[in-house]
Write a sequence for this structure.
């Protein structure tokens, strides 16, 4: 029996495609978690101590790279295809990680983090495109969402590995060794993409039906063919216009896919990058007063790992709801529940209540953030934009999202210095509320048709 991409049965091949594409999400949040651990480790022996600006700069450099990488690779992939950039991105990440390992100083680390982020930005614009264009229609957005869930694994895996390594250290200057985690993951990413092919949908959209049929057979087997509706060559002038023209033409979709992603970025990266530092500021790590700074960091990483473990159930809950509830509703509900969780955390901290209540509120925040905005901001661009401009639309949304994340990362240490943990939590609550309100106001009517 012959199938098209849209009506093919779900097989192990679809899971393999999703797994390979998901590694970009894993390494993206994994790097953010790694940076969150490197900063306090470097602080221990820094003379003078890193300023709040330098902490923000180190924390934000990979995100700044993502901003540029997602836009650049998004446009290039629309014009020149996916596969060459899909293989190039992990090479970029691996090379920059090796440079930071060999030359362990702040200037090289800052530049390397930018280059690593540039490669990850390409991942963010390409992986959702591959998955959304190769999955059966019934499973498309569940599989896209499943790929995003790999970002939770990035937090969990890297935090867990770092804790197992750091807990036995007696010297914080060993921090460059943690970069081996990025080298191994990016190397694995490249190896899995050696036997990967061009997107059949992209090829068909550019008139190369012969190669499209070859590649869809490579991906999904000889009984699957390219769907007839996309078999004719398509004109794609929109993919060649500037990002500014694209934003003017699609301003409602840009706001809907970009601004909530920026708000979500503060929670995922702004709070995520400084999570061990926030854990210590909240006083919820379990270390007796007077213990060494390195032990405080190690225990804050342990609490970070514990909090990170709730991220994956959050994604699973979101995936369960994705076909039962409108995508826009999942997103704004997640934002509002995240704001309530942070309010409980603020109340617990302000009145000196049990540290377990604070940890529980932090875990609830991560649960709802990942159930709603962190999942849906990744899924919705592929649902909103047509295939001929999907790379540019998804890349632009990711870029705006990372601008918000960069601002969040820069602001967290400044807010900590200016008003302590209370100010950080108040601002974070406000940002979550803004994300929910924008989602309600700008969700396209056709989104859940």
């Amino acid at each position: 029996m012959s199938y098209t991409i849209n009506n093919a049965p779900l097989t192990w091949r679809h899971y393999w495609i999703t797994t390979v594409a998901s590694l970009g999400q894993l390494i993206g949040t994994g790097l953010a978690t790694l940076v969150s651990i490197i900063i306090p480790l470097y602080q221990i022996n820094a003379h003078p101590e890193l300023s709040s600006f330098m902490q923000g700069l180190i924390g934000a450099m990979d995100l700044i790279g993502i901003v540029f990488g997602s836009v650049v690779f998004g446009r290039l992939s629309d014009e020149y295809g996916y596969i060459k950039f899909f293989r190039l991105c992990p090479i970029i990440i691996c090379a920059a990680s090796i440079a930071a390992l060999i030359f362990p100083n702040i200037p090289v680390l800052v530049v390397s983090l930018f280059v690593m982020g540039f490669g990850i930005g390409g991942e963010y614009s390409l992986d959702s495109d591959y998955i959304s264009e190769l999955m059966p229609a019934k499973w498309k957005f569940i599989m896209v969402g499943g790929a995003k869930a790999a970002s939770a694994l990035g937090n969990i895996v890297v935090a867990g590995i770092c804790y197992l390594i750091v807990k036995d250290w007696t010297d914080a200057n060993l921090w460059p060794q943690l970069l081996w985690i990025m080298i191994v993951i990016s190397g694995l990413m490249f190896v899995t993409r050696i036997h990967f092919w061009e997107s059949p949908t992209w090829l068909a959209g550019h008139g190369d039906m012969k190669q499209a049929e070859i590649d869809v057979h490579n991906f999904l087997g000889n009984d699957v063919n390219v769907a007839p509706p996309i078999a004719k060559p398509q004109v794609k002038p929109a993919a060649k216009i500037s990002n500014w023209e694209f934003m003017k033409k699609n301003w409602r979709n840009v706001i809907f896919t970009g601004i909530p992603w920026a708000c979500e970025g503060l929670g995922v990266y702004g709070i995520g990058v400084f999570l061990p530092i926030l854990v210590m500021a909240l006083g919820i790590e379990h270390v007796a007063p007077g213990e060494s700074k390195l032990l405080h960091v190690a225990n804050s990483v342990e609490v970070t790992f514990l909090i990170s473990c709730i991220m994956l159930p959050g994604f699973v809950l979101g995936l369960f709801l994705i076909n039962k509830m409108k995508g826009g509703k999942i997103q704004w509900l997640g934002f509002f529940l995240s704001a309530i969780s942070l309010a409980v955390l603020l109340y617990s901290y302000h009145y000196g209540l049990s540290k377990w209540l604070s940890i529980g509120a932090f875990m609830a925040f991560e649960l709802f953030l990942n159930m709603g905005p962190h999942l849906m901001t990744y899924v919705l661009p592929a649902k909103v934009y047509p295939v001929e401009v999907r790379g540019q639309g998804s890349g632009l949304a990711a870029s705006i999202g990372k601008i918000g994340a960069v601002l969040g990362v820069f602001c967290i240490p400044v807010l900590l210095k200016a008003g302590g943990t209370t100010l950080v939590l108040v601002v974070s609550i406000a940002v979550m509320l803004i994300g929910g309100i924008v989602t309600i106001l700008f969700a396209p009517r056709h989104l859940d048709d």
